[in-house]
Fold each of these.
Amino acid sequence: MRIPCWTMREKSRIAVLASGRGSNFEALARACLDCDYPAAVVVLITDNPEAGAVSIADSFNIEHVAVDCGPKKGSMSPESSEKITAVCAAHKIDVVCLAGFMRIVKGALMAAYRGRMLNIHPALLPSFRGLDAQRQALEFGVRWSGCTVHFVDEGVDSGAIILQRIVPVRSDDTVESLSERILREEHVAYPEAVRFYATGRLRVEGRRVIIREGV
Ligand code: GRF
């Protein structure tokens, strides 16, 4: 049976927040080109106008907005949190996807999108939270690593886990080779997790995210 195409009106509206290269943003934008995909990237919001993600947005014809999040590295000023929330409200955003956004979300944005905000992390959480996750995994000596898509809460990479994909760690791996292998899985995991979310298949029970069977 053919699944009917989603009309724009029915698609979940995504805002992607990114600070850098933007390959996960691109993976989401690409998935959204498929009319059977239940979501659409409506706006890219960045704290870095020089981000590679900005030129990717241009190539996909996606609107982008730069918001100065303040001088404190890794943190966002209350004003910037309000500004981002206002941009999301103006674009009628249903779900916020963090994709290499180098700030801890707090304030108005957290309050407005709790339970509706996702992040991708390049390690198998709860191991190796925070920066340089691939280096942490390599130096710790794990045999397997991977990526995790999770809901965002107030902590650092601490929200309920939606899905994970694994990769082997090889004895000759460098941070670069391991990161590359993980990144390929990130580009599969994030669109898949957003699909689950947008089709209403996720239910959170405490720390556990139950994924209902479905199309
Ligand atoms: C990815 O490894 C993602 O897991 C992490 O930051 C990196 C962003 O890469 N949160 P990109 O900008 O999506 O290429």
Note: The first helix runs from residue 23 to 32.
Amino acid sequence: MSEASRQIPAARYAERLAACREAVTARNYAALLIGVGPDLRYLTGFVGEPMERLTLLVIPSVGPAWFVVPQLEASKAGATPLVRAGGAEVVAFQETEDAAARVANLLSGARLDAGNAAWEPIGLSDRLWAMHVLQIQAALPGRKFEPASAVMRDLRQVKDADEARLLRLAATTADRTVDAIASGRLIGRTEAEVGREIRTRLIDEGHDLADFAIVGSGPNGASPHHDASERRIQAGEPVVLDLGGTLAGYLSDTTRTVWVAGEDGIGPEAEFRRVYDLVRDAQAEATAAVRPGVPAQEVDAAARSVIAAAGYGEYFTHRTGHGIGLEVHEDPYIVEGNDAPLQPGMAFSVEPGVYLPGRWGVRLENIVMCTEAGSEVLNQSSLDLRVVRG
Ligand code: ZN
Ligand code: ZN
Ligand code: ZN
């Protein structure tokens, strides 16, 4: 795939910042302070790890945005698409300087205290380290702080066209990986060995990072977040394969459950086949429930009612899904209690499962995007039960 297809144009970042500023104003925040993490990547294109030196995008409700960075990161910040698009100005501080005081100075220069703006809160990004939060609070005495997620959640959970394209690309890349693994060989190998092959393939197929590789054979499949152990996969048992990686910042996440029959063709046993069909039905029903305006919890209920009606309700022990984007778990959560209506552009997993303790588990997971017309399933790998010989 071409490099260009993995890029997000600079104009898109300027657009996101404009939408963010609008939301800041609508919520009556004085400013938004965004530290290193997915919110910062979303707004600027800056990729990095949080560290003891403060790195902060300062978005006041009025005036220009500043990208406050340590001097040694000034050129990296200057190269981000948002800065190149003229959306923010880089403000570099020296090693001996008090970065939080510098931020406070910028904000007071922005005249946030005109009128009754002093009462307006400042939104702090959820991922800002406590050491930075405390420094910022000390530098801005009397100011009220609230979570920036109140603004960022609404922006990030509705994907723009570039994000949809990258999520699609990540999903098909994961599909190729799961198809390769599901065709074997599995028998006699440890879960950890298969997990290592998954990670290698995730990268070879086009991810930048291999984030997770769950291999749950036999009884281990009954633990939804089982990792990959030294247990050897045997003939006559199922294996839950749940894998995902990061492509240009965006996550993939897909699960298929296969039956390992061996050369003698052991199974699949009758109850496994029944439960597999049930989970597949639940997955289909939940996917069919996705369309704009439907409360997120109804998608969960659609999956749960199928499984409960067959008497396996108590074995479906987790929510039906989670939003996905720059993070593997983000809003919207597909869970009872979330009555927020789905909107076109929301992307989330639909991953019902049945887990029989001590025996095995079945989970099937696709990433689904809500569209104007209903939904688009991003994963194309088959949901038919695969019986592996070797
Ligand atoms: Zn999970
Ligand atoms: Zn998963
Ligand atoms: Zn998932």
Note: The first helix runs from residue 10 to 26.
